[in-house]
Amino acid sequence: MKVFNKIKGFLGEEKACQFLKKKRYKIVERNFKNCIGEIDIIARIKKTIVFVEVKARESDRFGLPCEAVGRFKQNKIRLVAQSYIKLKRLEKFEVRFDVIEILDGKINHIENAF
Length: 114
What we know:
With 114 residues, the chain is an alpha+beta fold. It has helices at 2-22, 71-88; strands at residues 26-33, 38-45, 48-57, 94-103, 106-110. It has a single domain, classed as Trna Endonuclease, Chain: A, domain 1 (3-Layer(aba) Sandwich), CATH 3.40.1350. The longest helix is centred in the first third of the chain and has 21 residues, at 2-22. The protein is globular, with a radius of gyration of 14 Å.
């Protein structure tokens, strides 16, 4: 089951990256990790760095994918993003946090999700 979830997660992130590229985003990094946590996709559009959390599900039986990005997860992503910005010296860029949910193969891009 764990391997299946990893594959499903990878495929969801792959689909999200292709979607963002079609919208003219530049994918800067994928699966950035530090001791705090991980960010699925870091992208750039114009002068904005976008930190993207990807959630994929096959059905809404357990709720919408975006509902899995609660306050705790949001705060964790913010902390990882702050670390990344300092590490890469990106303070001059605007920052945005998006969620891409994939439900039964359909993509919903939620800009400024939190």
